[in-house]
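Researcher: Here's a chain I'd like modeled. Treat it as a single chain, no partners, no ligands.
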Amino acid sequence: MNKEEIRSQMKELAKQYVDCVNAEKAGKEKAYIPASGKNIGVTEVQNMIDASLDMWLTAGRFNDEFEKSFAEKLGVKYALSCNSGSSANLLALSALTSPKLGERQLKKGDEVIAVAAGFPTTVNPIIQNGCIPVFVDCEIGTYNVDVSKIEEAISPKTKVIFLAHTLGNMYDMDKVMALAEKYKLWVIEDSCDALGAQWNGKYAGTIGHIGTYSCYPAHHITMGEGGAVVTDNPILYRILLSFRDWGRDCFCKPGVDNTCHQRFKMKLGNLPMGYDHKYTYSHIGYNLKVTDWQAAIGVAQLKRLDEFLAQRKNNAAVLLAGLKDLEQYLILPKVSEQCTPSWFGFLISVKEDAPFTKQELVEYLENHGIGTRQLFAGNLLRQPMMTTADVNIRIGAGPVKNTQTLTEDDYKNLPGTDFIMNNTFWVGCAQNITEEDTAKTVQIIHQFVKEKGGI
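Model: Modeled as a single isolated chain. C-alpha cells:
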C-alpha cells in the first residue's frame, strides 16, 4: 500500500473502534450523571489521526481551517485560536495595553469593570497587567452583572468593561455598549461559557470589541485544551496576533516567511536598518498557540455546535419545566427577552427561607449520582488568592482598597455575590447528558425536597 492507502485504512479502523466504544456504552445507565462533559465522534478521532500523520506538530492546516470556520460561524472578520479560554482572556486584556492604541492604551493603575462571582481568569489578567479591578454586584436569577450598578462604578481612570456571560446567559449588551460609547470604554466579552448564545440575533463575543472563548472538555465544543479570540477591528487583530505569537511584529504563519515583503527593509525600535522582521518584537508577549491536533478536533466539533446547542436547550427545558413546582424553595434561571442562551449549565439557588440549605441539597445530589458545580469562585474577594495577595481593588463606587485589609463591611457591598456563594449551584445539561439523565436529576431533587418536608 502507498501512504494514502495506509492513511485511509487507519481512519477506517478508527471509525470501527469508535463504533465499538459507542456500542458498549449504548443502553448502559450512568452510575453518575456529570455536571458537564464532551461528546467525541468518529470525525474528531479521524482528524486527530490525520494531524498526527501530517507530522507538522504546531498550528497548521487544521488550525487555518478552524480559525476561518470559527470566524464565519460567528460572523466576525477575525478569529485567533489559542491554547485555552484563560489564555484568550489574557490575550484580550493584554492587547489593550499596546502602545499602538495611542490615548486608548490601557496602562498600569487604570481601572477595569469586573464581577467577583465567576471564574478567576476573567479577573486575573487585570491584576497581571497592573490594573485595578472594580467589582460590581450581580443579579440573582440571571447571575450576570447588575448593569444598573455599572455607571456609578465608572471613574475617570476606567478604561475597560471586562465581564463574562454567566453559563451561557447573556447580560444586557445594549446597556453595556451604550455605557462604553458614552465613556469611551473598551468592552471584552468573556464568552468562554457562552459560545452560541445570542443577543438580538448577534452571537456572544461579537458585540463588544473583543470576544473570548474556551474549548475545554466541559465547554460547548472542545479541543481538549484550547480557546479563541475574535474581533472585527484589524488593529486589535494584529495586536492580539503579536501577543499570542511571542510578541513579535511579524505576522507570518508558522513555516511561512516574508508575507509583508519587507522582511529586511525596515527599521524598528533601536535595531539596525534591515534587521530580520521575523525576529523583531513589538510587545512583551507569549506563545499561546494550539497544536494542529487540537485544531483538528475543533474543526470537527464546530460542525456539531448547533447539534450540541439544541441538546443543551432541550435538557434545560426539561429541568425548567420539571422544577417549576419547587419555586417556593428554589430560584430557577431567568433569561432576558433579547437573549437566546446557550446553557453551559443550569443554575439553581436555594431560597434563604427554604427548609434546607444549598449544602444539604448538593451533598444529597452527589450521594445519589448527580454531579454538581458551584458558580466557580463564588466570591473571588473571599478566595485565598485575594486575601493573601497584595492586590488593589475597588468595590462599586467605593475607594481603592487592598484585598488584605477587606472586612465584612466591604463584602456587604456585594450582597448578590455573597448570596451566590452561599445559595447557588448548578447541574448539567451538556451534550453528554441525555433527556433521561435530566429527568433523573429532576426526580432526585423532588425526592430530596419531599424528604425535607417541603412537599
